[in-house]
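Standup notes
- HV: blocked on the assembly model, inputs below
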Amino acid sequence: MARIWKFGSDVDTDQIVPGRYAPYMRPGEDVGSAAFIEARPEFARAAAPGDVIVAGSNFGCGSSREYAPLALKRREIGAIIAESFARIFYRNSINLGLPLVIAPEIARAVRDGDVVELDLAAGTLLAGGQVFELPPMPAFAREILAAGGVVPYVREHGRFPGLD
Amino acid sequence: MPQTLAEKILSRAAGQTTRAGELITVSPHLVMSHDSLTPSIIDIMRDELGFASVHDPEQLVIVMDHVAPASTVGTANNQNRTRQFAREQGIRLFDVGRGICHQVLVEEGLAWPGMVVLGADSHSTSYGAVGAFGSGMGSTDIALIWATGKTWLRVPESIRLDVSGRFNPGVSAKDLALKLERDLTISGATYAALEYHGLDWMALNDRQTLAGMAVELGAKAGMVLPEGEVAERFTVPEWLFPDPDAAYARCIPVALDSLQPQIALPHAVDHVVDVSEVAGTAVDVVFLGTCTNGRYEDLRAAARVLRGRRVADSVRFIVTPASSLELQRAAGDGTLSALLEAGAALTTPGCGACMGRHQGTLGDGDVCLSTGNRNFKGRMGSPNARIYLASPEVAAATALTGRITDPGALV
């Protein structure tokens, strides 16, 4: 069972991990401990492995800092379900093997604090007694996520994803 | 097949005709990283990908700008590690004090029309100012290029901005960039390549302001047609122009004649109003700098307002030139003196206070007017600070009075 952490639209990467908490600035610290540390301290304290982030549009906008999705990966967030994602954050997350789902219907239906069951393999989310189907990602993203991220993908296949 | 500027540049780089929506493999002409991320990129390349050395050191460049000079033992150690790596690998490195990556690469003639420039920094859209396809990527993507020399890209759709008219006195490129935020919003150009038309008259520094801000609309790239000053200072390949019947996702007319000074309110870059609407708001800090507005022309615009006057006692006026060359230009003609005599606190060319790490970090309750590009909560330090974004002219007028001020309203 997973808890929903719901956010609004235009959540930027400075919210996810402020620049002062970058690995560059805090060598030796786990960047996962800085996830939403100022924007939503409760998340930093209490987010548990498997929890799901749900958000409005343009999640992850702003800086290209990969340590933002990395922090969420370190916290073992099960997936981020949003109405839409910012470009660089989307690519960085897929590269790290952090599952993303673009699903406006689900994003609007679930509430903060809901307890849900996420089954990525089956492509479903059970929330409030309702089963939501998770829309599939584009093929290249599915390939990368299936490998666990772009580094394992490239090591396994010896080429970039999505191309012949 | 008629092509946009992005389609043409990426087709050349891919070695095949390509169009929006397709995936291509390219060997980028130039790949940039800075002090903040190079250490982690080294770790990814070596420890995760298993490559000891970069594929092609001549493809790469490193600039020390994010915390310059180092502010802590940790950042100093990280920087030394980066220097050693660059030396061993034979990678060009511009060290502390040279300036902000996006400014330095243009000054050094490393970014030029028609190139693909990928950087470990989202404001890499800045290279669109010289008609290059510039885009930001994360550390793992950059590490992959370091290791293999290549990356894959999805060719973006393009949005054409048809600009007409000229700036009113006291209005500049930053006001246009903020107006675009107001009209398109922070996600209005997500995934797209912006093409700015109607700006053949625009100086290079203003193009850099505009192109750098493209990412704040969600864009993948933002290219100003390489005409005018860019065509004079750089070699523009004869193929580097969009075809008249190229396909655009949107074409948006933008009129400059009625444009007044704009300001982004806390805490969103697209929460933009006319400066007159918030005139009189007290500020504690005025920050003149960043890759957006830290160039000689920006310093000069501020000096014009402040010459012979002093900033308000209630204000800290922090000036961070975008590069050593811009600083030297300002030092050479009285621009810098005017700012210093007005009460400017001058800091090392680099990103400075922009990311809340050093050289002007904001405390609880601080109100800052910045010429930078981001005002997210906590961006420059305390999440309880408030950041307004505006042009150098507005910044100088505001420093003078201690309150947000339209420069046209000054006596």
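- HV (later): unblocked. Chain B has a mean pLDDT of 97. The domain at 5-14+23-255 of chain B is CATH 3.30.499.10 (Aconitase; domain 3).
- Next: hand off to the docking folks.
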